[in-house]
Design a protein that fits this description.
It is a single chain. By secondary structure, the chain is mainly α. It has helices at 5-15, 25-39, 52-65, 69-81. The protein has a domain at 49-89. 60% of the residues lie in helices and 0% in strands. The longest helix is centred in the middle third of the chain and has 15 residues, at 25-39.
């Protein structure tokens, strides 16, 4: 598994036994879940043109993973704009 430096730091911290559980874990999970949902709440609809074959293959892969093809496109754009993946032309 390929982890980013930040992800590896988190794993190392947890495995070092320095991490401690917070009180009211369920409340904290609920609080952070709400924060995450509200963080990128504003979205803008766009229109793009894809080849039929690419869209077909994308929908097949989306179906196999249980993630909507729109969410896959959104995730790819997010990862690209945050320099997490590179575009190969």
């Amino acid at each position: 598994m390929n982890l980013t430096k930040e992800e590896q730091d988190i794993v190392n911290y947890i495995e070092s036994d320095k991490a401690k559980s917070v009180e009211n874990v369920k409340d904290e999970i609920t609080r952070y879940t709400k924060m995450a949902k509200n963080h990128n709440h504003k979205k803008k609809a766009i229109s793009i043109r894809l080849s039929e074959s690419d869209l077909y293959l994308l929908k097949q892969r989306a179906l196999a993973t249980g993630i909507s093809y729109q969410n896959i496109i959104q995730s790819l754009v997010h990862q690209y704009t945050h320099n997490q993946i590179e575009l190969k032309l």
